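DATA SHEET
Item: assembly model
Revision: 1
Owner: S.N.
Input lines:
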Amino acid sequence: MTKDTLVAQIREKQSFLCVGLDPDLSLIPSFLLEFEDPVFEFNRRIIDATKDLCVAYKPNTAFFEALGPKGWISLQKTLDYIPDTHFKIADAKRGDIGNTSRQYAKAFFESLSADAITVAPYMGRDSVEPFLEFPNKWVILLALTSNKGSLDFQMTPDQQEEALYEQVLRISQTYQGAERLMYVIGATHPDLIGKVRSLAPNHFFLVPGVGAQGGDLEAVAKQGMNADVGLLVNSSRGIIYAGNGPDFAEKARESALGLQQQMAALLSKMN
Amino acid sequence: MTKDTLVAQIREKQSFLCVGLDPDLSLIPSFLLEFEDPVFEFNRRIIDATKDLCVAYKPNTAFFEALGPKGWISLQKTLDYIPDTHFKIADAKRGDIGNTSRQYAKAFFESLSADAITVAPYMGRDSVEPFLEFPNKWVILLALTSNKGSLDFQMTPDQQEEALYEQVLRISQTYQGAERLMYVIGATHPDLIGKVRSLAPNHFFLVPGVGAQGGDLEAVAKQGMNADVGLLVNSSRGIIYAGNGPDFAEKARESALGLQQQMAALLSKMN
């Protein structure tokens, strides 16, 4: 997908919502367990119920891999089922030496139909660039993640020096194909999103951590939005597990609608 | 697998060799493509030809994922085929927020039969500890990798300060379950292996980069060995692609034997 298409979708739907698909057999409505592929059935109904309210879906590969080979089939079916109007993010946190990253890129961009993959930056340039060789495909690089462990390394050395997440933002913008880089910036660091925006003014941010992890949508939008909006705010558990009865898809829709309406208000205020 | 079992295997076989399984359909002998599962057939023959010479196998998940759901089946069959006397490393470079890392741990330690998984440290403590909750299962944390991109972030900030890989070594040893941590230390940094050993005296290192990437086995052993040997030296392409005709498994054995003999000499000299 091109950036122009993504931005046009955001404008049209008045939404920069990404719905995270973390299908856990112990959390999905029990009546779905009778279907041949409960995970796909769950995802399909969530997608049908929310697709007019969001611009992206983010299947989290861990929840599929935990089910073995049949989980990988559910992942493939899920990615194929997401409409092509939507930005398809494989949340896979991959990254390895060059010849291996190239195999991961093939896995997600060729064997599967993802538009983007999340990548961990620890191994540096030659672990990221192979993913950027695929036209119209995107890397979403971890910069400042939403979890508590983000304090361990990403925020070091200290306030006087350039922190690791700042190094990642600066150096990765010199990578070949960097125009198709986005960054993961957790909503749990609202005080830093403005700084991150100044370090990467033109890149999209994928922002997890709104909802279950406690991040604040308005603070994120105020500090993080740019002329292209530049934000994809993800909610996973807050939407997909809003209900767990026969009406779970309607509950998911209500939750997504609440976020979309807040986003529409923020977009009309700021653009 | 326990540490005692691994060390006993090393002593018995006079080998600290790990064979990396990176099965690439464009590189394996073409006659194997006629089999129903060429990847498994390739791995099976490599394992049969080398199992008395090595103590560990390291399937690289990227090469299986690139083949879609059937690749995941080949991975499962490969891990099941590796004898239980051998340490089974899923080279997967995973790591995510806590509830997601727990799903990856289930994928590799329960759905698949791996003893260990490689994990990227960028997201910190709560991304690693869920893997360490499984008895007798191991995390092999990326510290100083073998690729050129290791210079990008792992070696910063500079010589005066504590570099990122040193922070990773220091902080991760405080994690819950750290007695089941090993570290990836690339053979391409021979001048630093002694320093790394002083920072983590009791942990095993998984050392890639000998062979195709140019690392030197003797330098690694001299600086990296501890009282338990403490090293698993990996070779992938140098062994599995030593030949590509009908005799590829014999060629792989010859290559593995060459390394095992060097290892036996180093073990007798140093222990």
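QC remark: Chain A has eleven helices and eight strands.
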